[in-house]
Amino acid sequence: MGIDPAMQFQGQRSISVQAQSGLVQHDSHGAVIQYGYGYAGKRVRFSGWLRSSDVTGWAGAFIHVAPSGAERFFGSRRPDLKEDDLPFGAGGAVSVDRWTEVSLVVDVPNTPTAMVSMGAMVVGEGKVWLSAMRFEEVGLDVPLTTARIGMPLPTPEQRAAEAKRLAEKASRRIPPNLSLE
């Protein structure tokens, strides 16, 4: 992930995220993320121009808000991950072979430590580019984004298995520093 000077939109460089084929699982994800603070109680828009290739899961732009300034989404193996935890997204499960404009609009909670995170993400395999990005306050007349990123959520069985695994791991924990060093 990083800046890809070879892939430009109207003369502007792009950021990119790429998952290496064969090295990731279907729910693996990678992202380039920018955080924003100071927008409590505001409606904001993150927009840009998107392109993707070789997508097997989901690739696109995302935006996420957290009322307490703590990001809880990133961790697809969280046993308690649910759809409401997923960021809003513009992109999809298929490759977009031409530059396409995307726009994501959210309301930031009116809490002193509210945080916004935004960027480009790949779930599974593929590559995404994002260029000519903008972040701005918008009026309440601008409709909110309702689509979430595409990511497999854990089944109840997977949640139970992960909880059991964590409990077993915790029960076998060796106390630290027994050598008193």
From TrEMBL:
Region Disordered, residue ranges: 156-181
Compositionally biased tracts (Basic and acidic residues): 159-171
Protein name per UniProt: Uncharacterized protein
